[in-house]
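Chapter summary example.
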Amino acid sequence: MSQILLGTFVCLSHRYALCNILFGCSIGSLGWELDEPGVQNITVTMATFRGTQNGVRIKTWARASHGFVTGAVFQHVTMVNVSNPIIIEQRYCPDKNNCPNQVSGVKIKDVVYDDIHGTSATKVAVKLDCSQGNPCSGIRLKDVNLNYVRGNQPAVSSCAYAAGTASGISNPTSCLY
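The structure predicted for these 177 residues follows.
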């Protein structure tokens, strides 16, 4: 059974923010339109995700856009058997319609993941798949402790075009540059 327990969800700019029992807490879909407004100063804190497809997610279309995400904070979040606990997905293009071979123009910067802990249903617990044409910057991972639930294999991180820092507990090992 999928379940989300939210302690506090503060959203000053919320048109593109959604939390639900299937997909977790997602900022997106952003970047479908060229001149979309940006999303800034969103905080998700004291949440628990159980059995969801995603935990905390930022999703943008692989299309030209002047949009942005800045100042997002995800803190004190517990994951229980979540498929994608931490994910930035900037190459979103389902069925390769209306965006094949494009890169996301949405700029993602200054995103904080602080005290994110629990279990991942997949080996890749942290996936930061940013845009080649507009790399993510200022990503901060602090005290991230996610374990893969299957067997004795450790969880891993996967990064593409993601720059930032990791401090405190770093499990899985950070792939930020």
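To summarize the output: Residues 79 and 118 are 5 Å apart (CA to CA).
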